[in-house]
Specification:
- Strand 10 and strand 11 form a beta hairpin.
- Helix content is 33%, strand content 29%.
- The mean pLDDT is 91.
- The chain has 13 helices and 20 strands.
- The two termini are 36 Å apart.
- With 380 residues, it is of the alpha+beta class.
- Helix 1 packs parallel to helix 3.
């Protein structure tokens, strides 16, 4: 069973991990067995080579006696998987529920021990962007003191992996093998004028055509397994205008102090906001190709869409007259017609009563891993 082999490699690396050395380390692997990194043979073979390599490198460090798989993994996943700290997800929302259970257990532990004696919980997500999103959202909503007892490592085991800590598994595993430090990631929050939401993302939050592509990919993934996002990009260029009328959007961008930095009204195909610039979505589409973190694309005729859609893979859309790139802490927008929004692969329909809506960057919240300054490749 591939997930069992995977869990064995990760457990072997965690036993030698020096993360938060002053506290006992407890790890939990939350793995989606249907993710492409497990289910596609060619991808698994590449991943296994990286796992073997990093396992061998980790063994150059002495094992730590205070590192162990989580107790919850053994309860929820009896047998060898749970004994290695791995829990398999069984569908939408499961990764979030597992994380909530880990938070509850950590809360009980925190009430009976000082910080130095409490375990530090490392959650390792092994799936696509949906798995890591569920985990991050659950931790975002945890009490701040409990969040300090957790960190997340996002391994690229899905088909897209735009929100993972690296597109390459080996590079992501280096955060366990070599010295790393904790860094808090912010979130993107979508708030509506109605009671709908709020909604959160940790990579890119966007509205319009690309949200439609995401919505259809999610609906049809059982019929079109694998990377069907590319298929729906082609279909959306033809059908989007017929299903969702592209109307006027009024957009007001603001900085961290709430001051308006840009405002405009236009017919937009999409509006994408990232936690930062140089971010991708849809299996590495370079929607934010430079340091600017907001991209607006104007409506255009069908033939022009077909001509330009390939440029989003390379980032060359940035130089086209239909594209507007800028930097902002957030945007406030209103739309004439219903429009879809997507949050790292989850979608919601925004309707007339939901406007004006706001997409903004939150304060730092959830611990992730970052290469220490003296770690290999840190200068990159």
């Amino acid at each position: 069973m591939i997930p069992d082999k995977f869990a064995g490699y990760i457990a072997g690396i965690c036993l030698h991990c020096r993360l938060v050395p002053e506290r006992p380390l407890v790890w939990t692997i939350i793995a989606n067995p249907r993710a492409g990194g497990f289910s596609i043979g060619s991808r698994w073979r590449i991943h296994e080579a990286a796992l073997k390599s990093r396992t061998e490198q980790a063994r150059f460090r002495p094992p730590r006696a205070d590192a162990a798989p989580s107790r919850l993994a053994g309860i929820l996943e009896p047998g060898t998987l749970g004994g290695k700290g791995c829990i398999l997800t069984g569908g939408r929302g499961h990764a979030g529920r597992i994380t909530e259970a880990l938070i509850s257990e950590a809360s009980r532990t925190a009430s009976g021990a000082g910080k130095g004696g409490r375990p530090f919980n490392l959650i390792i997500t092994a799936g696509g962007d949906g798995t890591s999103l569920e985990v991050l959202k659950a931790l975002y909503h945890a009490p701040p003191a409990i969040r300090e007892d957790f960190a997340v490592l996002r391994l690229p085991m899905g088909t897209g992996n735009d929100g993972a800590d690296s597109w390459e598994l080996g590079t992501a595993l280096d955060l366990l093998v070599y010295p790393s430090v904790l860094e808090k990631t912010r979130a993107l929050r979508l708030s509506a004028a109605s009671s709908k939401g709020p909604f959160y993302a940790f990579n890119i939050l966007s509205i319009g055509l690309d949200a439609f592509v995401t919505h259809m990919t999610n609906r049809m993934k059982d019929r079109f397994p694998g990377d069907s996002y590319k298929l729906w990009v082609d279909i959306a260029a033809l059908l989007y205008d017929r299903i969702y009328k592209v109307g006027i959007l009024t957009v007001q961008a603001f900085d961290g102090s709430g001051q308006t930095v840009l405002s405009f009204t236009d017919k937009l195909l999409l509006l994408a906001v990232g936690l930062s610039g140089r971010r991708t979505y849809g299996a590495h589409k370079r929607i934010l190709p430079d340091e600017r973190n907001v991209c607006a694309v104007r409506q255009m005729p069908l033939l022009r869409k077909l001509a330009l859609k390939g440029l989003f893979t390379t980032g060359e859309h940035a130089g086209k007259p239909e594209t507007r790139l800028f930097s902002a802490h957030g945007v406030r927008f209103s739309a004439e017609n219903p429009i879809l929004a997507q949050m790292d692969g989850e979608t919601v329909l925004l309707e007339r009563g939901d406007f004006p809506a706001v997409i903004e960057i939150t304060e730092p919240a959830v611990n992730i891993l970052k290469r220490a300054e003296d770690g290999p490749g840190a200068e990159n």
